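Entry 14. Structure prediction run on the chain below.
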Amino acid sequence: MSDNESSSADQLPLAKVGFLGLGLMGTAMAANLVASGFPVTAYVRRAEQMNELQALGMVPTMNMADLSNCGVVVSMLPDDNAVREVFLGREGAGGLANRLPPGTTHLSMSTISTAAAAELARAHHDRGQGYVAAPVFGNPDAARARQLAIVVAGDEVHCARCRPLLNRLGRPFMIGPVPQQANLIKLLGNMMTATSLEVLGEVTAVLRKSRQDPQQFVDIMTDSMFGSRVHKIYGNRIVAGDYVPGLSMPLALKDVRLALSEAEKAGVPMPSVGVVRDRMITAIARGHAELDWTALGLVASEEAGL
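Output returned:
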């Protein structure tokens, strides 16, 4: 979509938005939509979330049917099973897709498999609805700061409808009409991050055992050869021992397994990612399941005897 088309899309009336998946990321994203003037109906399963979301300006509900009058329904759910259960129901019946009227757009921002994305796209198409895949790169801090990188694919009309929302959440990258291609990019991008975290953890352990300052190393590398957001943000967190979750270890492991599955289907070995998968399993086995995937650095330190 061109800049002119983007500007035109931003002039459209603000759609009423339904939102499912109000975890750390989802809450930050939905709050930004409210702050931008979008009316947001937020579906929750736990009554204790109601007051928090209402204070942020949302209309919380525990009745999924309340989303059926929203022009765009955003999902930020944890995995394939959760998205399938919510939208398709058990054994393909009774899900939210059957309650949404024709013309509704499902904006799927979850990190899911390409197979699940293709299945959802078919299901919505059969019901006269739109499906746009828009998985995001970024943590809750980036979500709050509207600095998410968003990979977007789907029908042009429905993508244009979602563009005003996406522009308020971060930077959208429009890649074409096939939704599942956005999910493949997301999974492979997460693999690049995961392998970077593993290497950062290992070099940090080497420096500590050598009685050198790992922060000095991170500062030099991120100001020269490795100036990416991943190396800067996560390098600093690993050095500081900051393992407060944005992406918890089990969810990161889920993404690794999905990427390896995609690679196997394509007939492409990913040996470095296989190593990272095993390191994540080690982290979980050692009781680090509630920590961020930066805890790969903790595992490296533990194995180095630190």
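The CA atoms of residues 249 and 293 lie 5 Å apart.
Filed with the rest of this week's runs.
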